[in-house]
């Protein structure tokens, strides 16, 4: 009986210690420092979550996170990203999606696309970072391409296409000082104002009216249309997917750089929202 009582006493003492330790841990968690908010947000996923229609985090996979669509990767790999892991392209690499990924991606009227790139200079043609294809048009529905640069100038020529519209950052509009380092790009179109905007590392670019003010003849453009949207490709042009587009022209090159945190929203984000995404993802949040 004495041994039994001693065992009970030991068990009760152990239970009391466990409860005390648990209580201390809870108190410690209560007093643990919280991540400071930036522009009202703690994590980048908190920015306009109801408007996010497609997102690729590239955490050792190429799954589109909103729809769960799986892509087929060819000659690609992963690298250290701005936030976790990132997509790494190659001269023959890309990821193909047999269906249009995301939620209602092909129904965009307004949009914002944000992404991180780390890109070295390349010679020759243009590299496509991604493309939303269009079966009835050579240029697809939406894309970002980086033109070759065989000069000593540290200026990147970026071209963006969306719904038959073009934004070409040529000449003095070329983006300076982003080769070989992480750079955050964001571009948007607001159907309500018919205006295009672009941001680099969280700051809006000053662009001429010929790029910002979108027209349908003499009238404001209004809602975008993305007709005949089919499939999706990361790191290449739609022509690299083969039929029905045929073969790629010689100047159409896969993207050889690193890509991370590709997001597409169904509205034009504010400058504050774009800035918050940039600042938070810079901190890995």
Please describe what this structure looks like.
This is LamG domain-containing protein. Pfam families: Laminin_G_3 (PF13385). InterPro entries: ConA-like_dom_sf. Strands 1, 3, 4, 6, 13, 14, 15 and 20 form an 8-stranded antiparallel beta sheet that branches. Strands 2, 5, 7, 8, 10, 11, 18 and 19 form an 8-stranded mixed beta sheet that branches. This protein is of the alpha+beta class. It has one domain (47-282): Jelly Rolls, CATH 2.60.120. It contains 3 helices and 20 strands. Helices cover 16% and strands 32% of the residues. It has helices at 2-31, 209-212, 271-282; strands spanning 52-56, 72-74, 77-80, 85-88, 94-97, 111-118, 126-132, 142-147, 155-156, 158-162, 165-169, 175-176, 182-190, 195-200, 203-204, 215-216, 219-220, 232-234, 252-254, 258-265. Residues 1-32 have low confidence and may be disordered. The termini are far apart.
Largest sheet: 8 strands, antiparallel
Radius of gyration: 24 Å
Shape: globular
Mean pLDDT: 90
CATH C-level label: Mainly Beta
Total domains: 1
CATH level-3 fold name: Jelly Rolls
Terminal-residue CA separation: 59 Å
Low-confidence stretches: 1-32
Number of helices: 3
By secondary-structure content and strand pairing, the structural class works out as alpha+beta
Strand runs, count: 20
Order of helices and strands: HEEEEEEEEEEEEEEEHEEEEEH
Percent in strands: 25-35%
GO molecular function: hydrolase activity, hydrolyzing O-glycosyl compounds
Protein name: LamG domain-containing protein
Organism: Pedobacter psychroterrae
């Amino acid at each position: 009986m004495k041994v039994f009582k001693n065992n009970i006493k030991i068990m009760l003492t152990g239970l009391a210690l466990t409860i005390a330790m648990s209580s201390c841990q809870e108190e410690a968690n209560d007093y643990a420092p919280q991540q400071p908010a930036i522009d009202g947000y703690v994590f980048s996923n908190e920015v306009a979550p109801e408007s996010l229609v497609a997102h690729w985090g590239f955490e050792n996979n190429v799954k589109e996170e909103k729809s769960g669509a799986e892509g087929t990767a060819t000659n690609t790999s992963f690298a250290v990203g701005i936030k976790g892991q990132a997509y790494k392209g190659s001269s023959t690499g890309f990821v193909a999606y047999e269906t249009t990924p995301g939620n209602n991606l092909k129904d965009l009227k307004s949009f914002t696309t944000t992404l991180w790139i780390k890109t070295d200079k390349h010679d020759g043609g243009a590299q496509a970072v991604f493309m939303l294809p269009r079966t009835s048009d050579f240029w697809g529905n939406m894309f970002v391409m980086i033109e070759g640069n065989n000069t000593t100038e540290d200026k990147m020529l970026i071209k963006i296409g969306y719904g038959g519209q073009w934004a070409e950052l040529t000449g003095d509009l070329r983006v300076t000082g982003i080769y070989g380092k992480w750079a955050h790009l964001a571009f948007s179109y607001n159907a309500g104002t018919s205006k295009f905007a672009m941001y680099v590392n969280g700051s809006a670019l000053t662009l001429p009216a010929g790029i910002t003010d979108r027209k349908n003849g003499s009238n404001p453009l209004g809602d975008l249309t993305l007709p005949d949207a089919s499939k999706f490709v990361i790191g290449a042009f739609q022509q690299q997917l083969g039929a029905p587009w045929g073969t790629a022209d010689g100047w159409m090159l896969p993207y050889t750089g690193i890509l991370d945190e590709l997001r597409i929203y169904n509205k034009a984000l504010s400058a504050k929202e774009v800035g918050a995404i940039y600042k938070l993802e810079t901190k890995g949040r």
